[in-house]
UniProtKB/TrEMBL annotation:
Pfam families: HMG-CoA_red (PF00368)
Family that this chain belongs to: Belongs to the HMG-CoA reductase family.
Record's protein name: hydroxymethylglutaryl-CoA reductase (NADPH)
Gene that produces this protein: hmgA
Alphabetical list of PROSITE patterns matching this protein: HMG_COA_REDUCTASE_4
InterPro entries membership: HMG_CoA_Rdtase, HMG_CoA_Rdtase_cat_sf, HMG_CoA_Rdtase_eu_arc, HMG_CoA_Rdtase_NAD(P)-bd_sf, HMG_CoA_Rdtase_sub-bd_dom_sf
GO molecular function, one term: hydroxymethylglutaryl-CoA reductase (NADPH) activity
Length: 391
């Protein structure tokens, strides 16, 4: 048998400069690859427990600033400089161009409509009738279930439980508010406590799986388009035809025609988002600010809506029904990520809705810029000139 090498670890104090170096040396021995840049960082490894295992160093991402961007929100109000971490040339410039249009049109209005985080256990019974009766019992005992769930958290609040029967299984979807945390782990722990209470108190035998996959954690789903996961945020603006013509060299009537064509194409493709590119801005902001990058899968889904007004101006809005962001906990407190949040005044408790409004406004700016670039014929040429690092 071939002996498999083991990555060096210290079970007592693994997050240290010493053990990060030992692992880099081990990798050099195993692969022949030196890691001088990965091993050069300013983060204190002692701050990383809970964020990373087998720490070896830092992957550095370029961060650019787009904006400033005028946001007229209920939580974000004023001019914001938006940090975007990316390796795609022209991206920051494109978002800044869209933000200029927004500013000259008076800013973007943003609204957080609602916010929930879910865990969706599945309860299994002998037959469909038993599953149906269980569902009625859950409705009758909601407040006891809520109390059991909330024993595990001072922030999370169980708001309602959705239910579906399939075969002999009853799928439940627990919906919580989670304050300024994204909350996936929070609601998992709370739902486990609730399920254990149910098993102990339901008069008949039942068993459960903590996630029956209807929470669609880190997966896009149409369910989240209808029943919000994370924050449902809307960003909207009236684009003035003269401003669009001056800056983008695009007529609003042409933009309206192109948007109809793009909507049809997205419908045929079964796309999760019918606008130009919500994921670009969201991913860049997520990386810069310490969000869970896998949540881009859910967060980028949405609906771009438009209307050509009688005076030739153009109403445009982005609805993001499952934007999952945090301004506290997770990776948001790491040094560079914290600094990027602080640039927007979005670090710490009480700031998650503000950050969500800035994200939605940024998505709208990017969509304005890219849509006009495609119509104006400089989409390919700008990327070819500025966005190709061939070294």
């Amino acid at each position: 048998m071939v002996k498999t090498p083991r990555i060096p670890r210290n079970t007592m104090n693994d997050h240290s400069l010493e053990w990060a170096q030992k692992r880099r040396e081990y990798l050099t021995e195993q692969t022949g690859t030196e890691l001088p840049h990965t091993g050069h960082f300013s983060i204190d490894p002692e701050a990383l427990p809970g964020n990373i295992e087998n720490f070896i160093g830092v992957v550095q991402m370029p961060v650019g600033i787009a904006g400033p961007l005028q946001v007229n929100g209920e939580y974000a109000n004023g001019l914001f400089h938006v940090p975007l971490a990316t390796t795609e040339g022209t991206l920051v410039a494109s978002y800044s161009r869209g933000m200029r249009v927004i500013n000259e049109c008076g800013g973007v209005n943003t609204t957080v409509v609602e916010q929930f985080m879910q865990r969706a256990p599945a309860f299994i019974f002998a037959n469909a009738r038993e599953a149906r009766e269980f569902g009625k019992w859950v409705e009758e005992h909601f407040f006891e279930i809520k109390a059991a769930a909330e024993t595990t958290t001072s922030i999370g609040k169980l708001e309602h439980i959705m239910q579906w029967s399939v075969s002999k299984t009853r799928y439940l979807r627990f919906n919580y508010t989670t304050g300024d945390a994204a909350g996936q782990n929070m609601v998992g722990k709370a739902t486990l406590a609730a399920c254990e209470w149910i098993v102990a108190n339901y008069p008949e035998h039942c068993e459960y799986l903590l996630s029956g996959n209807m929470d669609t954690d880190k997966k896009h789903s149409h369910l989240n388009m209808l029943h919000s996961r994370g924050k449902r945020v809307i960003a909207e603006i009236v684009l003035k035809k003269d401003v669009l013509k001056k800056i983008m060299k695009v007529d609003t009537k042409m933009l309206a025609r192109a948007t109809v064509l793009a909507n049809t194409g997205a419908l045929m493709a079964g796309a999760a988002y019918n606008g130009p590119h919500s994921a670009n801005g969201i991913a860049s902001l997520f990386i810069a600010t310490g969000q869970d990058e896998a949540n881009v899968v859910e967060s980028h889904a949405g609906l771009l809506s438009h209307e050509l007004l009688d005076n030739g101006d153009f109403y445009l809005s982005v609805t993001l029904p499952s934007l999952i962001v945090a301004t506290y906990g997770g990776g948001t407190g790491l040094p560079t990520q914290k600094e990027c949040l602080e640039l927007m005044g979005c670090y710490g408790t009480g700031k998650a809705n503000k950050f969500a409004e800035i994200v939605a406004a940024t998505v709208l700016a990017g969509d304005i810029s890219l849509a006009c670039a495609v119509i104006g014929g400089h989409w390919v040429s700008s990327h070819d000139k500025f966005g190709r690092n061939r070294d």
